[in-house]
């Protein structure tokens, strides 16, 4: 999708970003850009079901040609398949990930002390998993 893509070259001309913070700034901007497009889709696609209606009620902040490209992408078969696959995957998710950028495996490895016996590691892992399952039941699954 070419339309509505964050243009890094333009941002480098408009902003003076120190080298040491550049990766963080670009990652943060990318996330905000992705979230913005997600919010637009949620707001406009639910309200205006057809392509014609979506094109007619374009947000004033977005140029017409970019909006047309984004709407075309949202309504394409490829985007619809991806949306459905993501929906299916989220519905199968049993345990929410609340560890930030670290994977569950890394968190577990850091919390379990090195033990001489594998039995102690298995017990500790079982305790952690049962705590996670209890959290899941107390918080409910996403989408319910």
Automatic annotation (TrEMBL):
InterPro entries: Probable_transposase_24. This is Uncharacterized protein LOC104243659 isoform X3. Residues 100-109 have a biased composition (Polar residues). It comes from Nicotiana sylvestris (Wood tobacco). Residues 80-144 are annotated as: Disordered. Residues 80-95 have a biased composition (Basic residues). It holds the Pfam family Transposase_24.
């Amino acid at each position: 999708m070419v339309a509505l893509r964050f243009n890094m070259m333009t941002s480098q001309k408009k902003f003076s970003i120190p080298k040491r913070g550049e990766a963080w700034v670009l990652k943060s901007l990318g996330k905000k850009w992705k979230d913005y497009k997600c919010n637009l889709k949620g707001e406009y696609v639910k309200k205006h079901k057809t392509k014609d209606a979506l094109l007619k009620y374009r947000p004033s902040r977005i140029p017409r040609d970019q909006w047309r490209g984004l709407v075309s992408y949202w309504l394409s078969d490829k985007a619809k398949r991806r949306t459905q696959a993501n929906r299916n995957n989220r519905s199968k998710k049993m345990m929410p990930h609340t560890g930030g950028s670290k994977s569950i495996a890394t968190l577990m490895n850091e919390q379990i002390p090195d033990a001489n016996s594998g039995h102690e590691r298995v017990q500790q892992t079982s305790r952690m998993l049962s705590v996670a399952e209890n959290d899941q039941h107390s918080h409910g699954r996403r989408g319910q």
